[in-house]
Amino acid sequence: MDLLLLDLVIVLAAARLFGALARWLGQPPVIGEIVAGILLGPTLLGPLIGDELFGSEMRPPLQALANVGLVLFMFVVGLELDQKLVRGKGRIAVTVALGSTVVPFVLGCVLALAIAGEHVGGDKTLPFVLFMGAAMAATAFPVLARVLTDRGMQRITLGGLALASAAVIDVLAWTVLAVVVGIAGAGESEGQWKVLLALPYALVMFLVVKPLLARLVPAYEKAGRLTPGLLSLVLLGLIGSAWATEWMHVHFIFGAFVFGAVMPREGAERLNHEILERLEQLAVLLLLPMFFVVAGLNVNLRELDLSSLGTLSAILVVAIGGKLLGSYAAARTQRLPNRQSWALASLLNTRGLTEIVILTVGLQKGVLDDELYSLMVVMALVTTAMTGPLVRRIYPDRRVARDIAEAERAALGVTAAHRILVIVPDPPAEQAPLVGLATTLALSRSPSEVVLGHLRPYPAGRLEVGSGLSSELAELAETLHDLEALAGSARERGSETRVVSRFSADVAGESPELAAGARADLLVLPAGVPGYAAVRDGAVCRVVTVSLPVPEQSEPGSEPGPVAVRYGSGDDAAAHVALTLAMLWNRPLIVTGGNRASALAQRLSKLGVAAAAGAIPGNALVVAADTGTAPEGAHLLVRAEQDPDPVDWAEAVSALRAPAPRL
């Protein structure tokens, strides 16, 4: 007994220490807890100290405590599984979940067939193959939720879609695992028929037990709190459900998970919150870390040789490649943008908690041997550890902040219009071509709006009551009249337009504040506007700089000139602006710049755009990427927004062909 208590002290201290270290490194605590178990086991301590502290006689009681923690944890997972996640995202979530499950499952089965002879006997081949497929296809819903909430991504569309897809994957993975456990248990000489009771059990839980559990809600409301009697009923049902599935040779985790899933939802928010508050403290702080440390104790990396490294490499390639490619391909079939598709695929590659639970079941049922169990645990650690940094690289914090702002505007009922800010210099009456350019770009998106921003310097002298004040007021009124005239011309062309104008003591210094406050998606301004460099450098959106006067759309008695773009690597934003102007002005597009330019011109031509590669004619409006210096002859310089998505040219052309005014 004294050794057991000492083991508990060591295990819990190590779990808390390494869990905190993992959290400090930006990783889920489960990684630190598993690493703690590996270090306490034979991998580091070896047969002397390791066997003395965590010998064969100590493993059963530690495993029993860990299993109790697993029962509580699986109940919590079932209880927190929000069935509303799939609503409204059903088609996309199911499609992505199928791609994220089927591809790694098939690849896992193929890998299992290749290595089955080295790890299992003939009677275990089928459950082994199915088990490896299920293990490769798993996604850790709880760890994924933690990764998302740490960055606030659960509030944006991408996060909600990831959670919805993971919920569907969980159902698929647990279903396959139940089949595997049933097949593995069916080979036992006694009680083979019990597996057949799994389906009637599920029907009873959802058709009989679920309505009975709904009666907990009025009892809770009458008592006004979670009484010991109510909590005892929940625990009795939970443990009874776990025992039933274990007795049926379908493993106790399924009974615990299903009981959590059939708990009441409607009107039971406070009840479930109090249940979670009571159980999570015991499960998360004490018993669940015990489970993951014990899982790590079963890993022995000392016994691995070069052939094991080859198997580990194959496992990592199948697990990571299958998840990423399957999820990405499925997301793209649903027309998700490229960046969002890769971010979603990376999120669904998280395994962590769920994977360790599945691997432990496989080890207990004899489907996995110790060597393969160790390799699969390493795979679970690698895929979980890589998720956070990879997603942050693909979907940086700036993108998340932008998406959160859009979601908040939508929640407030504010239409998230594509906003174009035009910095209008003096005199406003001469800026019709500038505003016309911005209006054309605005009409390429719907809904959209143009904001005309103008800062007027205070008079050089002191304002006095009398003729001087009247003169300044008259000048201000004339400026506002000119701005409203520009706005009126934009409105006539179908663009929502508003004016922001005020006096400024420092036009150059306050222009960046005006640009930042507008929260624009596109900024249009002349190169010589006061404070230009600060405005350009401070903007996070796409910036279009008018470097040379924009040619008129047509000259009297002559054909309008084409739109030309200097195109190279990383110049998608400039090419997209040029394409927009060419299509909306109904002009040909000339792409120049070498092989990449020729390839883009051919691609656009196949999409029905009047595009060709070649030299820039003298009457063309020339667009180029903004690299800090203006190329000779360029009228417009385009700097991409921060963290830009690659342009989907087929989608861009399709959007520009949508019913809209052609100017």
TrEMBL record:
Domain Cation/H+ exchanger transmembrane: 14-392
Membrane topology: Multi-pass membrane protein
Top-level taxon of the source organism: Bacteria
Keywords assigned: Ion transport, Membrane, Transmembrane, Transmembrane helix, Transport
Localization: Membrane
Signal peptide bounds: none
Protein's UniProt keywords contain Repeat: no
A Pfam family reported for this protein in Swiss-Prot or TrEMBL: Na_H_Exchanger
Gene3D superfamilies, A to Z: 1.20.1530.20
Membrane-spanning ranges: 62-81, 93-116, 128-148, 160-183, 195-214, 226-244, 250-267, 279-297, 309-330, 342-361, 373-391
Main location class: membrane
Keyword Transmembrane: yes
PANTHER family assigned to the protein according to its UniProt record, in alphabetical order: CATION/H + ANTIPORTER (PTHR32468), K(+)_H(+) ANTIPORTER 1 (PTHR32468:SF0)
Record protein name field: Cation:proton antiporter
Organism: Streptosporangium amethystogenes subsp. fukuiense
